[in-house]
Design a protein that fits this description.
The protein is mainly beta and 330 residues long. The chain has one domain: Porin. The protein contains 4 helices and 13 strands. It has a 12-stranded antiparallel beta barrel with strand order 1-2-3-4-5-6-7-8-10-11-12-13. A hairpin with a 2-residue loop joins β4 and β5. The two termini are 17 Å apart.
Length: 330
């Protein structure tokens, strides 16, 4: 799961903006913003001071090629004195977004920086994302699955909860719950330190967990987590996802996940090495930013000893699933 991937960044989220790592696994809009107004070269200090007028003076003609309610005009004795527009970010960014834009400022909650960390670091914020509440049907049977993440705290440090799993006819088949202390290490990246508790068939396992999550260049949401368990057990999980916007509401999310284990665990039906890989494609329609039903397909491939355990239990090493669900965040 890579969550609404801007949620994992060290930055505040106002109401109506998307949260990840994640993807966490929270992405920038791919819709193009209007072309910003041009900014003329700045005149010399001497020229600017000679005829500077207040920008609200109504009877003065503007010398700017791209007039704006926020522009400041200048005059001078030179016949071709250039004008200097006001450095108002709204004008430079093209003004307000259209009514159907996913975010009113085109940011989708991603316009965060170290400046935001400084300005909003004392503010406590939170989010709860049900990234996946779905039913699935495949060669190995049918059931329901979940993937949820939530966090609360300040920009630089948050308490982070993460959980995923599957429910079959006899209850929870497999799943885990993770609790982290999340610390911002960059504008779009955070480190995580905490614990994981396994659910489902077989004995419960507890792990110490550590990792990183955030947004890579080109807005790929990445998550890498390592685990240390009792009796010398080790594990790791890698995830990557990306949002492809067909329209402002129709979004395709590919997601790739790998799970690794350091040694065989017959009681939990996992083998050493690469245990399994999952590739999912989910197409969602955002009725609102916070509510999006989706349809998709999921391919699951087990490897090595994990595949042997699956075959011994009467299952296929390769499973193709059709999924339908809903994505909700608060």
């Amino acid at each position: 799961m890579l969550h609404d991937h801007t949620a994992g960044m060290a930055m505040p989220m106002e109401s109506g903006e998307a949260g990840s790592a994640s993807h966490v696994h929270q992405h920038a809009d791919h819709a193009a913003s209007p072309t910003p107004g041009s900014v003329a070269p700045m005149s010399t200090p001497h020229e600017s001071m000679q005829g500077m007028t207040h920008p609200m003076t109504s009877d003065m003609p503007t010398a700017s090629a791209s007039p704006s309610p926020h522009s400041m005009t200048t005059t001078s004795s030179a016949p071709s004195a250039p004008a200097m527009t006001d450095m108002h970010m709204g004008a430079m960014q093209g003004g307000k977004a259209p009514a159907d834009a996913r975010s009113p400022d085109y940011s989708e909650g991603v316009g965060y920086s170290h400046m935001n960390l400084h300005m909003h670091g004392k503010r406590e914020i939170g989010m709860l994302l049900f990234d996946r509440l779905e039913a699935f049907a495949g060669d190995n049977g049918h059931g329901q699955s979940w993937e949820v993440s939530g966090w609360y705290g300040r920009d630089e440090n948050k308490l982070w909860l993460r959980s995923e799993g599957e429910v079959g006819q006899d209850g929870v088949d497999d799943g885990d719950v993770e609790l982290f202390w999340h610390h911002a290490i960059a504008s779009y990246w955070g480190s995580q330190l905490g614990m994981r508790h396994d659910l489902g068939e077989g004995p419960s396992r507890d792990w110490a967990a550590f990792g990183v999550e955030g947004l890579a260049p080109y807005w790929f949401a990445l998550e890498a987590t390592g685990y240390l368990g009792s009796s010398g057990r080790t594990a790791a999980r890698l995830r990557a996802s990306y949002d492809v916007l067909f329209t402002q509401r129709l979004v395709l999310e590919p997601e790739l996940e790998f799970n690794f284990y350091g040694k065989d665990d017959p009681a939990r039906r996992t083998g050493s090495g690469v245990s399994d890989a999952q590739l999912g494609l989910r197409l969602r329609y955002e009725v609102r930013r916070e509510l999006a039903p989706y349809l998709g397909i999921l391919w699951v491939r087990r490897f090595g000893k994990t595949a042997d355990y699956a075959r011994a239990d009467g299952q296929h090493a390769f499973d193709q699933q059709v999924v339908a669900g809903i994505r909700i965040w608060f």
